[in-house]
Specification:
The complex is a heterodimer of chains A (424) and B (78).
Chain A: H1 9-21, E1 24-35, E2 42-48, E3 53-59, H2 60-66, E4 75-85, E5 90-100, H3 102-119, E6 137-142, H4 147-159, E7 164-169, H5 177-190, E8 195-200, H6 214-222, E9 227-231, H7 239-243, E10 246-248, H8 251-258, H9 262-295, H10 303-329, H11 333-368, H12 370-375, E11 380-382, E12 401-406, E13 409-414
Parallel strand pairs in A: 3-5, 6-7, 6-8, 8-9, 9-10
Antiparallel strand pairs in A: 1-2, 1-4, 2-3, 4-5, 11-12, 12-13
Helix pairs in contact in A: 4-8, 5-6, 10-11
Chain B: H1 14-30, H2 35-58, E1 62-67
Helix pairs in contact in B: 1-2
The chains are: A alpha/beta (424), B mainly alpha (78).
Chain lengths: 424, 78
């Protein structure tokens, strides 16, 4: 073997290239550099793991056909072979195909399912039901272990202890989790709650995958009872969240969304109590005020006068009638009959007529009342006692209170000075 | 509201009782009611308030397991 001749550099590199290209492999790694200039025939990128990195290239047509948009940090799986770029003596991996691996793949699958369910209308805002304001039974579907279940129990106990809490404890991780969650949702709905909470504490994207499962999403969407989700932490967004009636960011936030805080309700009750009392007081004061106004009207000061006047009018009418009958008796018998007839008809209506007269009398009395004079713009001044009419400046002293009655009410004043008629 | 008018406040669901109470407050505030009606609604309102406040102060959380067994929280988790 020692006689074997030395190779030229080109021969050596081409030999290496052939040797490399005979091995086909599948490689998983994280994209660390990516260069895809539109003019290039190929996409150039680097894939690495903790201990090594590997320059890669992929023909543009194959890259576009893969449907993957490479970005730094993506976990990808490639198939292809190693090769060498002979002019520069560089080794590189020729990727024939590339796809997302691990979480990247999961995310793509989830995005596909999300698009499918969205196209079916399961995420439409119009499907989202209003949550009950004061639930009496709240069902909770979650793991019976860990922090999330206790976060919900504690939050509801503190904020809204009035509701009965029904817990369906199910596995939320592992291959069986989707089936267990679907069963939990079904059992929870059967218990007849006003509301279902579907929650899970934080975890990796993969840990949350059961909540991206199509069967779970469909069960949530089809639930006969409104569902609130609180899955993972703030940025996590599962498909169950998207189809739920209300999406809270964490288990605690889901419990808070389930019902108002008891202090808030107490506040509403206190305010109702105050408004109730105030409204009734106003109503009673209004009624008292109206009665006062009526009592002050002259009609009520001496109703006997009015009645006497009405009865007197009746008496006068009766006397005239008696006088009329004999004088006309001889001259006009027909007239008598007519008059009698009128009298008969008048009989039952006398009380009504009397009433009319009372009303008329009241109107007349009102015309005569001092109040009617006030209506024409005059005023009456009363002393501090409210009943003595002031007729002379000497009736008051400087500093006395006086009440001036005008049509619209009373003006209270204090005497500043007085001046008699002869002082002019 | 007229549906519940004869229902004893204790038998109403919390939300129903609160809704009726707030309807009564609104009606009373309108000032359009007869005095007698105002009085009887006020009485009804007070009864509703009393029942609601009673429900709040008596509230004690009840927890029922439908599936699985609740595991005590790990002390460190707090």
């Amino acid at each position: 073997m020692a006689e074997e001749r030395a190779l030229s550099v080109s021969e050596a590199m081409n030999g290496a290239k052939r040797a490399l290209e005979s091995v086909r492999v599948r490689v998983v790694g994280e994209v660390s550099e990516f260069n895809d200039k539109p003019g290039y025939k190929a996409a150039y990128f680097t894939v690495c793991d903790e201990g090594a990195s590997m320059p890669c290239m992929m023909w543009r047509d194959a890259y576009i056909a893969s449907g993957v948009e490479l970005r730094c940090g993506m976990l990808v799986e490639m198939s292809g072979f190693f090769s060498a770029y002979v002019p520069k003596g560089r080794m590189q991996f020729m990727a024939r195909s590339v796809s997302l691996a691990g979480e990247g793949m999961l995310r793509m699958q989830v995005a596909d399912l999300a698009r499918k369910l969205e196209a079916e209308g399961l995420m439409a805002a119009s499907r989202k039901r209003a949550l009950p304001e004061f639930p009496t039974r709240i069902a909770l579907v979650t793991s019976p272990r860990g922090k999330a279940v206790h976060d919900v129990i504690r939050t509801l106990k503190r904020r809204y202890p009035m509701a009965e809490l029904l817990i369906a404890g199910v596995a939320v991780e592992g291959a069986d989790a989707p089936r267990a969650i679907v069963e939990g949702l079904r059992v929870a709905a059967e218990a007849g709650p006003d509301l279902i909470l579907l929650v899970r504490g934080g975890g990796s994207y993969e840990d949350l995958m059961p909540f991206n499962h199509e069967s779970v999403a469909r069960q949530v969407a089809a639930s006969s009872v409104p569902v609130i989700t609180g899955i993972g932490h703030e940025p996590d967004d599962s498909i169950a969240d998207m189809v739920a009636d209300f999406r809270a960011s964490t288990p605690t936030a889901a419990a808070e969304a389930a019902a108002p805080a008891i202090e808030e309700i107490r506040g509403r009750l206190t305010s109702s109590q105050r408004l109730l009392a105030r409204a009734l007081l106003h109503r009673v004061q209004h009624a008292v005020h109206r009665v006062r106004l009526l009592v002050d009207r002259p009609v009520f000061t001496d109703p006997n006068i009015l009645l006497a006047q009405a009865w007197q009018a009746l008496d006068v009418a009766g006397v005239s009638l008696q006088r009329a009958i004999p004088s006309r008796l001889e001259r006009d018998a027909q007239r008598l009959e007519y008059t009698l007839d009128r009298l008969v008809r008048l009989g039952p209506s006398i009380p009504k007529r009397a009433g009319d007269r009372v009303a008329m009398g009241a109107a007349r009395l009102n015309d005569l009342s001092p109040l009617a004079i006030l209506g024409r713009g005059y005023a009456v001044a009363f002393g501090a006692d409210g009943s003595t009419v002031l007729r002379n400046p000497a009736d008051v002293s400087i500093g006395d209170s006086i009440n001036v009655r005008v049509q619209g009410g009373t003006i209270n004043g204090v005497v500043q000075s007085t001046r008699g008629v002869e002082d002019r | 509201m007229s549906d519940h008018e004869m229902t004893p406040p204790e038998q109403l669901a919390f939300g129903e009782a609160l809704a009726e109470l707030e309807t009564i407050v609104t009606a009373l505030e309108s000032g359009q009611l007869e005095l007698e009606d105002s009085m009887s609604r006020y009485e009804r309102g007070v009864a509703l308030l009393r029942a609601l406040q009673g429900k709040l102060s008596d509230a004690q959380q009840r927890v029922t397991m439908l599936l699985g067994e609740l595991e005590a929280e790990e002390p460190a988790a707090e």
